[in-house]
Amino acid sequence: MLQKEIKFVKSVLGKLIQREFGRDTYASYTEKMNKKQSMDIFCDIYERLRHESSDDLNHALKNLLESVQVSIRISRNFLYIVMGFIVTILTLLLLELPTSVFVLAGGAVILCFGYKTVEFFRNRYCDRDIRIVLIYKIALFHLLEESCLQKEGHEL
After folding, report:
1. What is the pLDDT of residue 148?
2. pTM
């Protein structure tokens, strides 16, 4: 139920899969992941990427790596966000602002912190998206390796 309430915040990795394959395909992959049909996901991704050029595959791999880095950065920066939240609230308390100003400023800070907290948890604990991205990565690596072998003249 919480997942449906907070649809506006998606994991970075989930957004990547949606951008690469579309929302409907992402929904299909999550359904298959829930049914433990990961080989079906791999076969579908492999077939979709099989006819791409090696430049397109390299670009897709670059996007994948950038998305993973953003996801990791969100997790690493959360400690600083918590510290900033605490310092901001303490500063607001120490400024002895009028009640209406304090409530408005405090509310804005709490809303921002709440959003960042939801974003952190969505990216930190998105096991389903992580598994789909790992399948995507394996398919990309396999196709890139195949492409390299073909360029070198090896028979597959």
Report:
1. 77
2. 0.79
